[in-house]
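Q: Got a minute? One more chain.
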Amino acid sequence: MTFDEYFKNRTGKGIDYDGNYGVQCFDLANDYSVKVVGGKQFVGMGAYEIYTNFANQPGKELYERIPNTPEFVPKKGDIMVWGQGLSKWGHVAICTGKGDTTWFESYDQNWTGRNDPVALIRHNYSHVLGVLRPRPKTTSVKPKPAKAPATVSPEQKIGDLNGDGKVNIADVSLLAAHVKGEKPIK
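A: Always. Here it is, folded:
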């Protein structure tokens, strides 16, 4: 599923991915990770742990962890993570790619803490830790099975027809006679 398809079908709806605590931002991140990125759900009690405990996240190989810096601008599909400076649990949202170094836009769920459904929200970078950027998907190409070695009939031999390990005049003469249909190769 693509980013655009995903949010077309989820904007205005609440996602309770794990069936616990109602509609949480963590639910949106897990649902997005599994259904769009093709990864696994994140682990942790707080949304901030997606970023701070990145080394222990299942499927971490599918993401690049990028810190928030004064020059940073998120890309479409980045998973933005706020730290505990925002709230006890932090927050997580999915970036649209719109913004600059002073603001960005993202799809959030539970932004106000009242089980809010998925909505488009404009943010500043206050308390942002950074993002998890999905790595480009690679397509695996299955190697072709090795072909069985071709068997070479005596008619297909070109060199060393007399078995002495060298191609010589006698071999060339024998091959020429064979091609003309005058003499079979043994």
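A: The first strand starts at residue 63 and ends at 67.
Q: Perfect, thanks.
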